[in-house]
Design goal:
Number of helices: 2
Structural class: alpha+beta
Radius of gyration: 12 Å
Shape: globular
CATH architecture: Roll
Length: 82
C-alpha cells in the first residue's frame, strides 16, 4: 500500500491528511495518480492543477514520474507568505 499525504487545502479536499491506499496496478506514474485520485475524491480538478507539487519518497518530482505501490507520495499545494 502507498502512503499518500495531503498538505494544506488538499487535506480538506481529500477528507484526511494521510492515508494508505491500494493504488490500481494500471497507475504507474504521478500523472495517472493525479487523475485517478481526482476522480476517486470527486475533487473537481484540485489534484490536477499544475501548481500542486508532488514528492515521491521525500523527493520533489515532475510529472510523469514513476511510482510503485510501496511509495510515500505527498501532494503539496502552493504556499504563500509575506
Amino acid at each position: 500500500m502507498a502512503d499518500i499525504l495531503y498538505f494544506g487545502r488538499l487535506g480538506d479536499v481529500a477528507g484526511t491528511g494521510a492515508e494508505n491506499l491500494d493504488i490500481p496496478a494500471a497507475i504507474t506514474d504521478t500523472a495517472a495518480l493525479r487523475r485517478w485520485l481526482d476522480a476517486e475524491k470527486s475533487a473537481g480538478g484540485a489534484f490536477l492543477k499544475a501548481s500542486v507539487r508532488l514528492a515521491v519518497n521525500s523527493e520533489i518530482v515532475v510529472d510523469p514520474h514513476p511510482i510503485s505501490p510501496s511509495d510515500e507520495i505527498a501532494f503539496m499545494p502552493p504556499v504563500g507568505g509575506g
